[in-house]
């Protein structure tokens, strides 16, 4: 299992980015509009870490790992068959890939296809 994109949603983007930079020696670029304004950095192994503010009043802070899959439609279908509730169906993010989010067991689960 590989994490393709690790998303942190927080109301204090600057503080989180500063902490990660100091603790892990990473450098964040300015916000990427395609990723909800997330400030991003590349991690070892090919994972991208993105830190962004909530996009609407109902979005709560969360750490959301997007697990890399070869077929996102099949992954979401399998999760649904296992009782998951889809929150965001497969959605193409121009220049990045396709993502999906579902709820299962009280947590947000996310998948990513390059």
TrEMBL record:
SUPFAM superfamilies per the UniProt record, alphabetical: Glyoxalase/Bleomycin resistance protein/Dihydroxybiphenyl dioxygenase
Keywords in alphabetical order: Lyase
Highest taxon of the lineage: Bacteria
InterPro entries according to UniProt: Glyas_Bleomycin-R_OHBP_Dase
GO terms of molecular function: lyase activity
Identification of the protein by name: Putative enzyme related to lactoylglutathione lyase
């Amino acid at each position: 299992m590989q994490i393709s994109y690790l998303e942190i949603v927080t109301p204090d983007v600057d503080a989180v980015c500063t902490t990660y930079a100091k603790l892990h020696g990473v450098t964040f670029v300015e916000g990427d509009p395609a990723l909800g304004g997330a400030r991003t950095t590349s991690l070892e192994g090919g994972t991208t870490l993105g830190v962004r503010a909530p996009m609407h009043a109902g979005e709560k802070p969360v750490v959301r790992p997007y697990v890399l899959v070869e077929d996102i439609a099949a992954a979401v279908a399998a999760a649904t068959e296992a009782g998951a509730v889809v929150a965001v169906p497969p959605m193409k993010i121009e220049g990045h890939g396709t993502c999906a989010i579902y709820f299962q067991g009280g947590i947000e689960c996310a998948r990513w296809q390059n």
